[in-house]
Design goal:
Aminopeptidase, 37% helix, 18% strand, globular, binds zinc ion
């Protein structure tokens, strides 16, 4: 900062001031909430969550493995001490009516506003030996680890955080109307019917975020302000080069929220393949634990945590 001269004495006083204030705060008995810290995102823990989830494979919507996966996610969140619910619903699919389950966890904030952090957990039906480690294990593992660390920090965000684990994202008939996005459409409908959609500041969706060659291509149908917020966050934590903007429109779980006027973004790397630029692992049995990496979960987790700091915790990057 040109033109500003700081003497060593000023520096020393500046450094001492927070310590003095802290002592005064303890003496006066006021709460020390600000002493809590969010800590660092742990990609290793997130990977362990993915490993645990893919024990339930395939976990197609409306099947017993799908139900067990939902119960597993519910139990993990309960263990973290987060408020959690299972929302069971039925919906029509091209295969007939199916019963599905959204798992919804909440960390309330100081205001009545909310940010939704979403991931689906179901797998694409009809693929032999399918683990879905990237689609949908990676994003589910990251949401679980974020829920754990935020809960552990005991920090109360300004804006509440709602972790939405959607069932039935995968379409089985090329996403014709009424096919796929069952869980997210169900939640968006509930929000609209209760008027609670007005309380949702933003919806951030994670999908396919574990590819070893992690290159986010943010689809065109993402809200402009959230794109900027994401790029700022990625820059702040040193991963800006992993993000590009795409002109492609992607039908994913953020769309039902956009449709009811909620700003939403899809953080997706839609090129999951054996070589950079290819998508040949997508919806094949090569979508397994060997083809995702802890490092990519680390990058995605750090950027997502930074977005939450900016939006929910009012902590802007320096
Ligand atoms: Zn998929």
């Amino acid at each position: 900062m040109p033109g500003r001269f700081i003497t060593p004495k000023t520096l020393r006083i500046t450094g001492l001031l927070p310590a003095i204030l802290c002592v005064l705060a303890v003496m006066s008995g006021c709460n020390t909430e600000n002493s809590h810290e969010l800590g660092a995102f742990d990609g290793q823990q997130a990977f362990a969550e993915v490993e645990a989830l893919v024990q339930f494979s395939p976990r197609d919507a409306g099947t017993s493995e799908g139900w067990k996966a939902a119960k597993h996610i519910f139990q993990r969140l309960e263990t973290f001490g987060v408020e959690v619910d299972m929302d069971t619903f039925t919906d029509m699919t091209p295969d007939g009516e199916k019963t599905m389950i959204n798992v919804v966890a909440t960390i309330p904030g100081k205001t009545k506003e909310w940010i939704i952090l979403g991931s689906h957990f179901d797998t694409m039906p009809g693929i032999d030996g399918f683990q879905g480690a990237n689609d949908s294990g990676s994003s589910t593992g990251i949401l679980l680890e974020l829920a754990r660390m935020i809960s552990d920090s005991k920090m109360v965000p300004e804006i509440g955080i709602l972790f939405a684990f959607f069932d039935g994202e995968e379409g089985i008939a090329e996403y014709i109307p009424g096919d796929g996005l069952h869980g997210s459409r169900h939640m968006a409908k509930q929000l609209l019917e209760t008027g609670d959609h007005k309380k949702i500041r933003a919806m951030i969706l994670l999908d396919m975020v574990g590819d070893k060659d992690l290159k986010f291509t943010i689809p065109y149908n993402s809200s402009r302000d959230l794109v900027q917020e994401t790029l700022n966050a990625a820059h702040a934590v040193g991963y800006r080069d992993h993000f590009t903007l795409s002109r492609v429109i992607i039908t994913d779980d953020h769309v039902p929220f956009l449709d009811i006027g909620i700003p939403a973004i899809d953080l997706i790397d839609f090129k999951f393949g054996s070589e950079p630029g290819l998508n040949d692992h997508w919806h094949t049995e090569a979508d397994n634990l060997q083809n995702i990496s802890e490092e990519s979960l680390q990058i995605t987790g750090e950027v997502t945590l930074q977005i939450l700091k900016q939006i929910a915790f009012n902590q802007n990057a320096d």
